Amino acid sequence: xxxxxxxxxxxxxxxxxxxxxxxxxxxxxxxxxxxxxxxxxxxxxxxxxxxxxxxxxxxxxxxxxxxxxxxxxxxxxxxxxxxxxxxxxxxxxxxxxxxxxxxxxxxxxxxxxxxxxxxxxxxxxxxxxxxxxxxxxxxxxxxxxxxxxxxxxxxxxxxxxxxxxxxxxxxxxxxxxxxxxxxxxxxxxxxxxxxxxxxxxxxxxxxxxxxxxxxxxxxxxxxxxxxxxxxxxxxxxxxxxxxxxxxxxxxxxxxxxxxxxxxxxxxxxxxxxxxxxxxxxxxxxxxxxxxxxxxxxxxxxxxxxxxxxxxxxxxxxxxxxxxxxxxxxxxxxxxxxxxxxxxxxxxxxxxxxxxxxxxxxxxxxxxxxxxxxxxxxxxxxxxxxxxxxxxxxxxxxxxxxxxxxxxxxxxxxxxxxxxxxxxxxxxxxxxxxxxxxxxxxxxxxxxxxxxx
Length: 452
Fold this sequence. Notes:
The chain is of the alpha/beta class. It is 39% helix and 19% strand. It has a 7-stranded antiparallel sheet. A 6-stranded parallel sheet has the order 7-6-11-10-9-8. Strands 16-14-15-19 form a 4-stranded mixed sheet. A hairpin with a 2-residue loop joins strand 14 (356-363) and strand 15.
């Protein structure tokens, strides 16, 4: 069975911001090692987004289980300066021994809800901040963007074509996985296919056509090697290319098994309609039309609205870099230490104190609202979303979910969202997220104490 995580190279304990290590040394010197709780959450959504899809947990849990400082890394820190030998000796024996609660991958989430809670001795919980944000931010962003693309495609196949313009190899591989969680059918990334057991698909490049002296001969040669391929028809004149596919079908007769043609430039809606007419008039009803070229959810929605007869979409750059919303406003914040709630009061960046649970309520087969409550509250209604995924540094079964389970969860939960939340526009009203009376009371009391 394929592994469920990947790194460009084994993740180093030095993949952290310097301030994490300087704070760590200060905590150790002061003897501050009691239990802390940190929340990872999204503060607010990008413009016109109505939800996010939690993703990236698998890589976080793998990292936590294997987090150690090697001798070479400790030597580097010694050379860097500012760290005592006593602290370096502490790091030599460092292991993550805490607990983690999380929304399973594929869960729909909303602002202020903890996607992940880390409960561990303060130095441990602090050190993992950089890696956790790095992985969960990227993969949650990618899954959420892809979900919008898949939704507007209305059942047409969506394939990830974004590898070459993703922001590095780690983003390309893990982005492909996140896209698949969100419902993307396949990826062009061969490595991602190997690692995660995902379907891998591809077509052909214009350079293959250009390398031949004759376009029809290029199509014939490629088809002789790959009979059920997808043929690129827009290298020169798109509709002339489609007609060459018809000629190829006449030449090959019953041996013609080409699955689809690919349109990669021009007015895709107009060309798709014209190409469909040419194919149908030649009796090639089974040859599908696949489209690419700077697609995103808005471009696909427009094509669908025009009734373009397109059976599949190759989506690249704009999905792989989430071009309209390349970041999520997210945070990893201390919410409890030594059994007492902690919070931040900064304008626009305040947080909710204490360990929490998020409950989701349904009515009439649709999600209606979420309630963020304290973890030890006993709410009468709703499905609890945060589940234990790691205990004392060891991954639990709930944290070892398969890629297919995450994908199915994302689809099931999207189907339960009210239609307005699946729109490409901001929902009015937005999904309701309440704070329980007890949590609200504790927040107000703590705020008053901090401001006094």
